[in-house]
Design goal:
The structure is a homotetramer. The first copy, chain A, is an alpha/beta fold. Chain A has a single domain, classed as Alpha-Beta Barrel (TIM Barrel), CATH 3.20.20.370. The first copy, chain A, is built from eleven helices and nine strands. Chain A has helices spanning about 30, 40-65, 75-80, 80-90, 110-130, 145-150, 190-195, 210-225, 235-240, 240-255, 265-275, and strands at about 15-25, 70-75, 95, 135, 155-160, 170, 175-180, 230-235, 260. In chain A, the strands form two sheets. In chain A, strands 1, 2, 3, 8 and 9 form a five-stranded parallel sheet that branches. In chain A, strands 4-5-7-6 form a four-stranded mixed sheet, sandwiched between helices. In chain A, strand 4 (about 135), helix 6 and strand 5 (about 155-160) form a beta-alpha-beta unit. In chain A, helix 2 (about 40-65) packs parallel to helix 4, helix 2 runs parallel beside helix 10 and helix 8 runs parallel beside helix 10. Chains A, B, C, D: This is Putative hydrolase.
Chain lengths: ~290, ~290, ~290, ~290
């Protein structure tokens, strides 16, 4: 039977953990759905804002607050903006895997998914000279076979599931495991800010103040239960000046809390791995079972 | 002619009633629409958060404030998470019927609907050892034949209609009746919080503060007319830390109001039944009548 | 060439006018789109809330503040709830035309539209004993032939256009005219509150405070230009307790402003007619003209 | 490789620039999608509000604050409302190009797009007696061939891209260039206010206070990085009384900032042209490249 993830011990007497993560989707967000979006010069420029303007601004911001973070990068973004991705790594941040063209893996066979995973790995290794240890499924669509594919490739952790606010060891067929650092839709800037005609959103765009209210409340909530707060921001969205200013207020606040361990995803995952937790199994639901 | 539900007397000199209800849809919310959603590991984990994390958190919260509540549970949720559902019952809360796989009953024949009702009843009885007395239609889609099916199965009450803020005896063909405890869309957390790609929502996710403002205002409104405030929350949504904190503020407030009877749905329904009200008929509209 | 509507003089030295109007759509809102919605017992109960609960509550509210208003009523609502509609009229409010089954007139021929107009007229006359003088197109979809059909039937005014905040005489082929009292989407409660699955809305439901902020700001704006503030509320939506409380705050405020003439639509229309304004022509756009 | 736009020097020791722009779409917004919308009298009146009421109100507002601005005008709007467009020009504001019938250029061939550009140019020249120097793509859908078409026709600037908050010289095949003044979705009133059934929007309409909060925060953000704040408003939306009042508050604030150069788009573009910047190339993404 599926059981809940248990609270974990945090290092240095901390009571909770936090990581500000950034998905550098850039053009891939649209191209992974249809490469025909490449014809739309304005839509492409909207996405290019991420690596061109958003990432440098966010790097400055993280530097000012001495925060180490994790950037999930589709392979195509690394190919198209190698200097940008190297600048992230050079600033001491983690580069993690986010597909090649931000492909939805939903419904893909293991073989098809493996091809994309390898293409993304190659791109990131070629550009940064380092093999990533973390993965986040594009559109947060993990298949039941995905954890095994990640373990095959030596990944330490995944960050695509939503069933806990504590990280855990995710059992793979009871034989192996991978660290899972869970996320959720409310801790994502896409729902608050993203409008791209003929692609995403109903048209509504929220105020940074509203987004910060949701994220700030959830930070306090997750801290109160000793969990791991993982915020997902996209440089093409949250790199805009006013959103970055409001995000900075939140980062300043979180980074000044003595009981919170603010670090990168790989540091969290390594810590979890070191706890030698009993892996947790998640059963695929089958309504014909009963 | 259809006439409005009249205000009712509340016990112990109370001026209004209130119940915080929880729909433990879990995976069924998606599987009842298409079992293919079972392939989506992340989406399933988003739903599993309800029974795994949300329910225990909500049970603690209700315990802290000494509040008895009602949980509407699809049969499949009881089959998949029997310990969770038993823990709810063991804490003194009511388990009520919410379909088997959260199936929309819209357009089903009476026979088809009866099969689902019985399957759900069997699941809840098997898991909890008790036959539920209350029903809420999945997606709040009641058919005109549904009340008769519920009466056939000995249900005391239904909670799926929206034409009043006072409970009433709903006449079934003028011969029998069932207690109806009405609800409404604005007193539901789904509209405020639920985003599941390729399933539900336009993408927008609201702040718990906004949800609490709507619910708090409506509580005062319903109290002022002596009605019955029924809030519907989903553990996979409102079980998230910050939402639970804000919900707790509302529960604390409501539970501290001397003129409000805060209790379970079955207690409210039993009280209504004891009033021996004249059953109220609702005429099916037929625009060809005139 | 189409020219703007000019500001008008208001009686008694008032600087602006205001009317709180109510569209008693009830079941027709759905049935006019498809009569199959009649099978949905919950959805029908959601609409029945309007005449059963919302209208009496609003009548009390208007009475408390001594405000005379206008209710736009589809013929089918009058047929199904004759006592409710007579109670509105008996309280001194105006009953105006709003289609028979809230049919969208978009794309209908003049003959088809005429049939519906007559059916609605008959229903209202039969139920109230009075012939309505005002019309509002269901879904605010006026056809270019509609004003002529209304003039043929002796209507004094229409309230379905959005090109001004001052009422005007709308020229009909340069020979006749009808008073137009313009409205707009932002002064409607549907956009803020209406969620009916498989029928209307993206799922989002707003707080009454937000709705009141929009309406209150626009009241001040329209007052500042000497216009006519027309708010459109639906009893099945704004009749809910908290929404009615917030609406009452606005009505209390508006009714206490000495420089604002708060009255019914027919009173406003009669005043406009008495000004003997030069009718204003609106040209149908034809992009092939140039 | 595509590189980011660099900050620019502003004249008179200013630290940032700002322009309040207005897209006078009027009926074209709908007709460009389908001329059948011309049959919808109410929808057309909603759009006519822009030139008839919104534009004069905005002209007054700009005059009160001594602000010079830019109005992007589809050719059809100029044909249908020549006096309105001439009044804008006579007040000293810039008239710029915005298609003929607000056609989406997405997927059009260069030849098809050229025909529309020329038709729009002819209309504006005929009506105002002046050839426009600026262009904004309808729906902000620029094609990769569009900048060349604009350069062929002698345009000084375009304002349709989203990859920067600093204006730049956009290289055209490395041989020519056009000034680009970038914009973005969050600085547009359409997303906050526009609801037109069967055409645009999910139904939600926001409060002017919320829109002003987003725009005010982004103004501060762009000022802090020395960029160019370009707000896009539509007279049929932001010309409504309360929205105009709230917009006026923002204009008053921005116009009173000593370090901000508030002017028209053509003035900004001329300044940028005078800086003799190295043109910036934007590479069309091609995921098959790697």
């Amino acid at each position: 039977m599926t059981t809940p993830a248990a609270p974990v011990q945090w290092p240095h007497g901390k009571k909770a953990a936090a990581c500000f993560t950034f998905d550098v989707d850039a053009e891939s967000a649209l191209l992974g759905v249809s490469t025909q979006h490449a014809d739309r010069m304005t839509a492409m420029s909207h996405q290019a804002y991420g690596p061109l303007v958003g990432v440098p601004r966010i790097l400055d911001l993280l530097h000012r607050h001495d925060v180490t973070s994790t950037f999930f990068v589709p392979g195509y973004t690394a190919h198209r903006y190698p200097d940008v991705i190297r600048a992230i790594a050079d600033a001491g941040h983690e580069i993690a895997h986010h597909g090649y063209l931000h492909e939805s893996m939903a419904g893909l066979t293991a073989k098809e998914e493996a091809t994309i995973l390898d293409r993304g790995l190659d791109a990131l290794e070629t550009v940064t000279g380092q093999r990533p240890v973390g993965y986040r499924a594009p559109m947060w669509e993990l298949n039941w076979h995905s954890p095994g594919l990640l373990a095959d490739r030596g990944f330490l952790y995944d960050s695509s599931l939503m069933d806990a606010e504590h990280p855990y060891e995710l059992s793979i067929s009871g034989k192996r495991s991978i660290v899972e650092i869970p996320i959720q839709w409310a801790l994502d800037d896409w729902e608050q800010y993203c409008y791209i005609p003929d692609f995403s959103g109903s048209g509504l765009i929220e105020s940074p103040r509203k987004a910060a209210e949701i994220w700030g409340l959830e930070f306090e909530g997750i801290r109160s239960v000793g969990g791991c707060f993982v915020l997902t921001n996209h440089p093409f969205l949250s790199g805009r000046p006013s959103r970055a200013l409001v995000l900075e207020e939140l980062i300043r606040y979180v980074s000044s809390q003595d009981d919170v361990w603010l670090t990168s995803m790989s540091a969290i995952a390594s810590h979890i791995r070191g706890l030698v937790l009993t892996p947790r199994s998640i059963e695929r639901p089958d309504p014909n079972d009963f």
